[in-house]
Recover the amino acids of this structure.
């Protein structure tokens, strides 16, 4: 009888996976069966396969002779959080993240802002919100929660073959793209050209673990020491805001110089056109005997 109980347990487990897949995707029983079987009843793999194939809206599209048409389910969901007819504001964003079980401090909150092309902190536009979710055939919170997890995983993957793209321009969603997006996302006024040091440091601390994970760096502790020195240098010596160029170039500096050789910075070349803040950081390390002059 033990073997029979074991078979029943396995059968119930498979049925549960199929049921969960149907609830998350809204597909028919037959389609669900096909996807879960192909994924050997691994729900995450089945969902990944499904959403990577869902490249067009399920119900409505953009027509050449008329305005974009929106799925009623997404219009209703947007209305639940909206501040006005065209935007979700701060309060709605907080409620939306709560429904998605995402903390505002969680990297997933940044992923969803990037994924939905949020123009600034705490704001989503109606057009992007509905169009993007419609493109990926997501019409419920449960479906959105699942897809955001997959998008985040794809962004952090070192693979250049990305499954998720910007719905409007077709470009792949990448960690570097999300990093560059964040500078614009954090701006408080339209013509703002710099970010204050404290804001940059807060978001660097959010990004650096993701960068280390995506590059599979084996020197994480040494890199963290250098990053702490960078933050200290900015607070104690530099004391100036960070430009967009400085923000973007620091991503490359971390990848090419710090992660590559956190002890000696052997890839650093004084003749390269790094922003002055990076050159001053090198001088700071040397002056404080934290980096040998002949080590670079």
């Amino acid at each position: 009888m033990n073997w029979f109980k074991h078979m029943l347990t396995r059968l119930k487990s498979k049925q549960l996976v199929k049921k969960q897949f149907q609830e998350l995707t809204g597909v028919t029983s037959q389609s669900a069966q096909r996807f879960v079987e192909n994924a050997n009843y691994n729900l995450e793999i089945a969902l990944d396969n499904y959403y990577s194939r869902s490249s067009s809206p399920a119900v409505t599209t953009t027509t050449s002779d008329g305005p974009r048409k929106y799925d009623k389910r997404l219009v209703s969901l947007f209305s639940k959080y909206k501040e006005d007819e065209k935007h979700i504001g701060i309060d709605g964003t907080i409620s939306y993240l709560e429904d998605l079980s995402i903390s505002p401090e969680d990297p997933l909150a940044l992923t969803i802002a990037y994924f939905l092309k949020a123009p600034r902190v705490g704001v989503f536009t109606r057009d992007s919100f509905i169009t993007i979710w419609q493109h990926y055939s997501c019409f419920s919170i449960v479906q959105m929660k699942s897809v955001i997890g997959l998008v985040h995983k794809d962004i952090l993957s070192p693979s250049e073959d990305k499954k998720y793209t910007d719905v409007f321009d077709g470009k792949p969603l990448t960690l570097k793209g999300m990093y560059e997006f964040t500078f614009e996302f954090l701006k408080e006024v339209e013509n703002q050209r710099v970010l204050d040091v404290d804001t940059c440091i807060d978001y660097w601390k959010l990004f650096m673990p993701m960068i280390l994970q995506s590059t599979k760096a084996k020197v994480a502790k040494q890199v963290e020491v250098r990053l702490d020195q960078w933050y200290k240098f900015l607070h104690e010596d530099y004391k100036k805001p960070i430009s967009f160029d400085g923000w973007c170039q620091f991503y490359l500096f971390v990848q090419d110089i710090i992660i590559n050789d956190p002890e000696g910075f052997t890839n650093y070349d004084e003749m390269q056109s790094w922003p002055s803040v990076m050159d001053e950081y090198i001088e700071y390390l040397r002056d404080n005997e934290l980096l040998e002059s002949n080590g670079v």
User: Anything to note?
Assistant: The longest strand covers residues 87-88. The beta strands are 87-88, 124-125, 194-195, 242-243. Residues 2-25 form the longest helix (24 residues). Confidence is low (pLDDT under 50) at residues 1-8, 55-66.
